[in-house]
Amino acid sequence: MTVDLFLLQLFTGLALGSIFVLVALGLSLIFGLLTIVNFAHGQFFMLGAYVGAFVLGMTGNFWLSLIAVPLAVGAVGMLCERFLVRPLYGRGIDYPLLLTYGLGLILLETVRILAGTQGIPFNTPPVLSGAADLGFFFFPKYRLFLIAITAIILVALWLFLERTSYGLIIRAGARDQEIVQVLGVDVGRVWLVVFGVGVAIAGLAGVLAAPIRGVFPEMGVPVLVEAFVVTVVGGMGSLLGAVVAGLAVGVTVSFTSFFYPEMATLSMFLLMALVLVFRPRGLFGRAGLLG
Amino acid sequence: MLTVKDLNAWYGRSHILQGIGLEIAAGEAVCMIGRNGAGKTTTLRSIMGLVQRRSGTVLFEGTDIIALPTHRRFAMGLAYVPEERRIVGGLSVLENIRLGLVASPNLKREGEIIDRVAETFPRLKERLSQQADTLSGGEQQMLAIARAMVSDPKLIMLDEPSEGIMPVLVDEMFELFARMKARGITILIVEQNVERALQLADRAYVVDQGEIVHSGDAKALLADREIQERYCSV
C-alpha cells in the first residue's frame, strides 16, 4: 500500500467517522445527563435528512438547510422531551427506552406516509462537488467539507460546554444532579435543552450525510446501530469517547473495505468486541454509570 | 423566618420523620442534635425539597414551601450544604464556586464575589484552578460552604460540617460560622460534635426516632449532661 493510497483511505475513514461522531455525540450527551438511551436517535437523523431535502427543494439553498434542520429537528426533539419523555424520569431505564423505541417507529411511519417509501434525491451542492487536489491524491470535496464542518461543530460544542454557565451546569449535572438542584438550577429545563441539542446534532448529521447516503425512510436504522457501536467503544456518556471512537470506527471500516470489502460492516462489531473484552466500560467510560 | 409544623417524610415504606416541628427566627443559629439515623439529615433534606414523599407545613418567611421544587426554595434564599460535601469532581475549585452562582442574581457580580470568597477562604484562593477532588477533606468542606454562600442566602443549613475533618480546620470552620452569624445569616446546623454546635447555637432541638424530644436554650443544654447522654451518645 502506497502512502497516497493509505492517506486516501484514512481521509475516507475520517469523513465516514465524522457522521458517526455527530450521531454518537448526541446519543452520548443525552445518555450522560438524562440516563436515557434514545432509541429514536436514528429517526431524528432521518428526519434531519428529510427536512433538509424539503428546505433544499423549496429554496435551492443548501446552506440554509444546514441552519433550518437543527432548529426544526431540535424543536421536535424538545416537544418529545417535554410531553413524552419527561413524565418517565426517575422510573428506571427501561421505560424511556421503550418509549423512544416506539417514538422512532412513529417517526418512521409518519415520514413514509408523508414523503413516500421510495426515498428522494439529494444532490451534492455544486460548490462542493468534484474532487480537490490534496497534493498526494484527489479527494471528494464534499467529504473534505464533512470533516471540516464536524471539526467546527465539535469546537463550538466544546466552547459551549467549557466556557458558558449553561455548559458548567451540564457538566456538573452529569455527575451530581441533586447538588445542581440545591444550587438553584431547574434541571428540568436543562434536560429539555440537552435533549433538544442532542437530537438537533443528529438531524444535522442526517442532512450532512444525505448527499452520500441518500434520503430514504429507513436510513436511520443502520445509523442507530453504528452510533451504539461508537458509544460502546468510546464509553457510554463520554463525549470525548464519542469523538475518538467515531473516528476510529470510521477509519476501521474504511481500511477493511479496501482490503477485505466483505468484512467492512462486520469490522466495526469486531472492534467493539475487542474493546469490550479488554475494557468493558469503553475507552473513556466511567464504570457503573447505571449502578 | 422558618417554621416547620408536623413534618412527615418517608423513604420507601419507612416513616422517617414523624411530625417534626421547629422554629427559627431571623439571625438565629439553631442546632439539631441526636443519634445517627434520628432524622436530622432527612429534616434538612425535606426543608430543601429533596425528599419525594413528605407532608406537613414548611413556612419560609411566611410562604408555605412544602410543595415547591428545590430550585424555587434556593431562589427564596435557602441554602443547603449536604453531608459529605458533594463537591463536583472533574470541575476545578473555581468552577465549583461558579456553580453556586449560575442560578443566582449575583452572577452579574461574579468577579467581586470570587474576590470575596478568596478573602474569606485563603486556603481556596491558592487553589482556584486546581481540580476540586484533589483538595483535602477540610478544604472540600470550605469549598462546599463557599459555594453555598456566594448566592448570599438568608438561611443556610449545614449538615455535619465537621465530619472527618482535622481539628485545626474544625476550629477555623466554627470561627467562620460565628462570623456568618454575626453578619446576620440565619443558621440551622446538624452536628455530631455536640459541644461545638451548642457553643455556636442560640437554641437547640434534640431529635430522636423522627421526633423532637427536647428543645431549649443551647447553653442550658450544654450543661445538661443527662439529656446529652440519653439522646446523643452512640
Automatic annotation (TrEMBL), chain A:
Gene Ontology biological-process annotations: amino acid transport
UniProt keyword Metal-binding, yes or no: no
Principal location: membrane
Membrane-traversing stretches: 6-29, 36-56, 62-85, 97-114, 144-161, 190-212, 224-252, 258-278
Entry's localization field: Cell membrane
CC annotations in GO: plasma membrane
Domain of life: Bacteria
Entry keywords, A to Z: Amino-acid transport, Cell membrane, Membrane, Transmembrane, Transmembrane helix, Transport
PANTHER family, per database record: ABC TRANSPORTER ATP-BINDING PROTEIN, BRANCHED-CHAIN AMINO ACID TRANSPORT SYSTEM PERMEASE PROTEIN LIVH
Protein name (record): Branched-chain amino acid ABC transporter permease
From TrEMBL, chain B:
Pfam family, one: ABC_tran
Keywords of the record: Amino-acid transport, ATP-binding, Nucleotide-binding, Transport
Database matches in InterPro entries: AAA+_ATPase, ABC_transporter-like_ATP-bd, ABC_transporter-like_CS, BCAA_Transport_ATP-bd_LivF, P-loop_NTPase
Domain (ABC transporter) ranges: 2-234
One Gene Ontology MF term: branched-chain amino acid transmembrane transporter activity
A Gene Ontology biological process term: L-amino acid transport
Annotated family: Belongs to the ABC transporter superfamily.
Protein name (record): ABC transporter ATP-binding protein
Record organism: Propylenella binzhouense
Lineage of the species this protein comes from: Bacteria, Pseudomonadati, Pseudomonadota, Alphaproteobacteria, Hyphomicrobiales
